[in-house]
Design goal:
alpha+beta; 50s Ribosomal Protein L17, Chain: A; three-stranded antiparallel β-sheet; about 50% helix; about 15% strand
């Protein structure tokens, strides 16, 4: 039984899943839009929104938390200096998921995960 078990397994073990979600979050901040499966997008969305909220806070502790998650100093600077100030008046909901339809090879539901303007 899965009582009180949170999150999707995504067909991987814990370390691979953590690395994959970190990589997806990095891609979202780098490109501001990615195409991925619906399950992966729904899993990475809270991580992306949490990092943007840290960016809005802007203190040293938030920078260190974001650096621990993204592990790319230049990307953390981009989030805190360019991306987070766009959302100063917004209280959450920084990302959008647009459904595309099934993937050709395995019929996995594909989506676009993008940052809201």
């Amino acid at each position: 039984m899965r009582h009180l078990k949170k999150g999707r397994k995504l067909g991987t073990d814990a370390s691979h899943r953590k690395a994959m979600l970190r990589s997806l979050a990095t891609a979202v901040f780098t490109n501001e839009r990615i195409k991925t499966t619906e399950a992966k997008a729904k899993e990475v969305r809270p991580l992306v929104e949490k990092i943007i909220t840290w960016g809005k806070r802007g203190d040293v502790h938030s920078r260190r938390l974001a650096l621990a998650e993204l592990s790319d100093r230049e990307l953390v600077h981009k989030v805190f200096d360019d991306i987070a100030p766009r959302y100063e008046s917004r209280e959450g909901g920084y990302t959008r998921i647009l459904k595309l339809g099934p993937r050709k090879g395995d019929a996995a539901p594909m989506v676009i995960l993008e940052l809201v303007d």
